[in-house]
Amino acid sequence: MFYQMITNARNRWFASSECTAQGIIAYIEKANQMRDAQIDAIKTYLYLKIACGCAPLAKLFCQGAFNTLPRLHCSSTPV
Questions:
Q1: Please, is 9 exposed, middle or buried when counting C-beta atoms within 10 Å of its C-beta (0-12, 13-18, 19+)?
Q2: Taking 70 as the threshold, does the pLDDT of residue 72 lie above it?
Q3: I need a surface site. Which of 52, 63, 67, 68 has the fewest CB within 10 A?
Q4: DSSP state, residue 17
Q5: Rounded Cα–Cα distance for residues 63 and 42 (Å)
Q6: How many CB atoms lie within 10 A of CB 2?
Q7: Is residue 78 part of a domain?
Q8: In this structure, is residue 68 part of a structural domain?
Q9: Rg (alpha carbons) of the chain, rounded to whole number
Q10: 46 within a domain of the structure (yes/no)
């Protein structure tokens, strides 16, 4: 469930004009030296690093970073 939410958000980011990593992923795919699972892992890493600013996953889930529905307010307890 969480994997699919993160993957969907990652794919939306890669398809957007905000993505700054499209060139490197295109090069990796063109070089054909990595398996699909490795490319997916790199895409997810770059998404979490660049688009999400290296925030902890708990914070990102609380902020609704992976939701496609309207964001709900989380409690203000520290994560």
A1: buried
A2: no
A3: 68
A4: T
A5: 23
A6: 9
A7: no
A8: no
A9: 14
A10: yes
Report yes or no on 10 lying in a domain: yes
- pLDDT, tens digit (0-9, with 9 covering 90-100), for 53-68: 999 999 998 888 888 7
Taking residues 23-43, report their average pLDDT: 95
Amino acid at 54: C
CB 61 within 8 A of CB 75: no
Q: What sections of the chain are H helices per DSSP? A: 2-15, 22-31, 36-46, 57-63
Domain count, the chain: 1
Size of the chain, expressed as the number of residues it contains: 79
Q: 63 is written with which tokens?
A: 């902020």
Q: Which amino acid is at 49?
A: K
| 8 Å CB contact between 64 and 72 | yes
- The domain of 53 spans 2-63
Predicted local distance difference test score (pLDDT) of residue 69: 63
